[in-house]
# Entry
Amino acid sequence: MQEPTLIPINVLTGFLGSGKTTLLNRWVHQTSMANTLVVINEFGAIGLDHQLITQSDEQAVIEMSSGCLCCTLRGDLSRTLQQALEDLEAQDKALPSRVVIETTGLASPTSLLQLLMTDHWLAHRFKLDSVVCCVDVANGMGTLDAHRESQQQVAVAEKLLITKTDLASEEVVSQLANRLARLNPAAEQWQVINGELSADLLVGAGLARHAPYADTGNEAHKDSQEYQVEKWLKAGSYVVHQAAPLTPRLLTGAPLGSYQPEGTSHSDNIKSFCFSVNELIEPEVLENWLDILMSLMGDNMLRIKAIVHLTDRDTPLALHGVQHIFHPPAPLPKTSVGDRVSRFVFITQNVTPETVAELYSFFHASQEVAQ
# Structure
């Protein structure tokens, strides 16, 4: 029995005043957004040239002249999307080909990413494609200094949109771009001039994508998947660390997770790095290692992506975690990767790569002793 096609979700985040609404206002009128459901904070911020598809006490779905669909977030995201899909079905409208969700500017998107993993209804109908973050060049540096949530928004994104670049000098734009690259070395950066940017840049950062999203009329083609492991993981963008020798701190049972940031200058608290393991990993080692990381430091594990090769499998697994929560492992075909090296990309706050490497060495050594 063929698995149902999951609808890709693109998350648009960014601090207050970063230009999210301006971009959405342009995007919802672009023809490339046809059959895209956009979940916005309020209709009043969007210039609506629309027809109301349906309205109830709980939900209204609006269709723009471009074919883009809009609804407002009313409390619970799961209920909002359920109601929107029910409204479309009641009008014999097709399900959306993708969903764009605008987050509140005051919060880290990690809670939303967790919800997409843990909510049963959402997890069986949607998949995360990308997190896109807006940072305005006028206030970006100060916002990053003052608000941890802003740093987290940048750190977990696949794509960074530097907005209002027409209002700043090249030097100021370059300074912000360099800082963003230190916070998130793997993210694509795009400069937004006068609010103009194609909505097509939202899509295509997920691990698996249906090729193409649009319905071609060929059912076999419609359900085929292309795996883009390198584009999703981007392990080569990070400094690579490997298993470290055991230290007296670990051997004597000293407290774990007690590392402090190495400095107090801006962006030091966010650490993004790749941890690689050349040998096949014992499943028990992987489970124990990730369990202890999540138990002791889960709040500071903003996002984890990994391609893992285990001793009891011939094919790799893809892992995706946010703080304490991991999505169920996704089996990948052999042909999706070029070697059998396991690579873990960690985006953390106040967790050093040395901690991660030493803990892996501890459980790896313990497994060898047990055998």
Observations:
- Residues 47-57, 210-224, 248-267 have pLDDT under 50 and may be disordered.
- The radius of gyration is 22 Å.
- The chain has two domains: 7-227, 234-370.
- The domain at 234-370 is CATH 3.30.1220.10 (Hypothetical Protein Yjia; Chain: A;domain 2).
